[in-house]
Amino acid sequence: MTATPTETSELTPLHALHLRLGARMAPFAGYDMPIQYPTGVLTEHLHTREKCGLFDVSHMGQAVLEGPNAAARLETLVPADIVGLAPGRTRYTQFLADDGGILDDLMVTRLPGEPESLYIVCNASMKAQDFALMREKLPDLRLDVLEDRALIAVQGPRAADVVEGLIPGAQNLVFMQGGDFEWRDSPLFVTRSGYTGEDGFEISLPASQAEAFAERLLAHPDCKPIGLGARDSLRLEAGLCLYGHDIDTSTDPIEAALQWSIGKRRRENGGFPGVARIQHALKDGAARVRIGLVLEGKQPAREGAEIATPGGEIVGKITSGGPAPSLGKPVAMGYVAREFSAAGTELAAIVRGKALPARVTKTPFVPNRYFKG
After folding, report:
1. Among 26-35, 45-54, 110-119, whose mean pLDDT is lowest?
2. Rounded to whole angstroms, what are the CA distances from 182 to 166, 170, 209?
3. Most CB atoms within 10 A, among 5, 33, 107, 276?
């Protein structure tokens, strides 16, 4: 059954297609979005792992930040090395508050040419705040918000074959690389990236072409539409953070086990919000850290469940949790005091007063299969 969008829900360019495909729709981040299709979340999840899934991520924020020294200027808001980013390369980073808390996470791609130009993709629920932050803090740069663009993710081991049929040359990209392409004389910007742990692409294209393009992708026998339910279970298996759940203003990148996203130059030289807190955590370790948990049995532990020692001492809280269809067992991520964070540590998730045995496990829970050439 399809839910009626609320009066405040915005519609993506693929909304009518979702309805024709029988999606169950629900409000998400201010948009009416497909949660699942008739085959269900489990089937969609496994199909993406085995073949190829198409995701509508047009609700995400897309913008181009342009002007003299745009990379260096953006570095005053994020801890990643943006200046060292080669043209056509993509990097994951975070907008940070003055105390080092995470305001949002985002992807930045340096576009070729002069003046310096950066393509930014940020979370749907935070995009208005992110755009306002850049306009306030970087008034000397031009921020072009791409309101008339759709964003389609194609993910899975068959993604390159599916995309190559419509975008010749896209399969020559490697993980975290982007480029300009065309389809029916319309400009596309394609990055080899995604949020499932699989090989895949994110394709930015004019909203007017999105439905026809998606239908062509779905005409491939290996490509099926995938809703937000499976997108969430896929990213959880991949050990990837969801903003507002696993990371927020109360967490910094070191607590969140995202120190890999902060380059050596930025760690040493700073120049971004919250640098003192982050340098301290890098030197001495964070008091609490994000971990992965694999639970015994079949019952999952959801966000908000407390994490305890086998003796009953509460040492943390789960931020994301649910079944891992690829593993056939429940998994979770959450934060615990550092002394309980080593892989192999035995803990428990408290669900309805019952302690479910669990073990700390390195993430990703399922090996990543990014194409790195």
Report:
1. 110-119
2. 9, 10, 11
3. 33
Q: Which value, in Å, is the radius of gyration of the alpha carbons in the chain?
A: 21
Q: What is the pLDDT of residues 271-316, one digit of tens each?
A: 999 999 999 999 999 999 999 999 999 999 999 999 999 999 999 9
b vs e for 141-175, b when ≥16 Cβ sit within 10 Å of the residue's Cβ? bebebbeebbbbbbbbbbbbebbeebbeebbebeb
Distance, CA of 318 to chain centre: 18
> Domain segments of the chain: what residues?
15-55+148-237, 62-145, 287-361
**Residues 244, 90, 247: CA angle, nearest 5 degrees:** 15
CATH (one of 3.30.230.10, 3.40.50.970, 3.30.1360.120, 3.30.420.10) for 15-55+148-237? 3.30.1360.120
Question: From 2.40.30.110, 3.40.47.10, 3.40.50.300, 3.30.450.40, which CATH number describes the 287-361 domain?
Answer: 2.40.30.110
What pLDDT, in 10s, does the model give residues 175-215? 999 999 999 999 999 999 999 999 999 999 999 999 999 99
Of 301, 274, 291, 295, which is closest to residue 340 (Cα–Cα)? 291
| Torsional class of 134: left (φ above 0), alpha (ψ -120 to 50), beta (otherwise) | alpha
- For the whole model, what pTM was predicted? 0.96
8 A C-beta contact, residue 199 and residue 163: no
What CA–CA distance (Å, rounded) separates 360 from 106? 27
Query: Residue 130 has which token pair?
Result: 């992110």
- CB contact at 8 A, 213 and 16: no
Task: Please tell me the distance from the alpha carbon of residue 286 to that of residue 341, in angstroms, as a whole number.
Answer: 11
Q: pLDDT digits over 214-273, tens only? A: 999 999 999 999 999 999 999 999 999 999 999 999 999 999 999 999 999 999 999 999
Q: Distance between CA atoms of 356 and 341, rounded to whole angstroms?
A: 17
* CA gap 115, 245 in Å, rounded: 37
Other C-beta atoms closer than 10 Å to the C-beta of 204 total 22
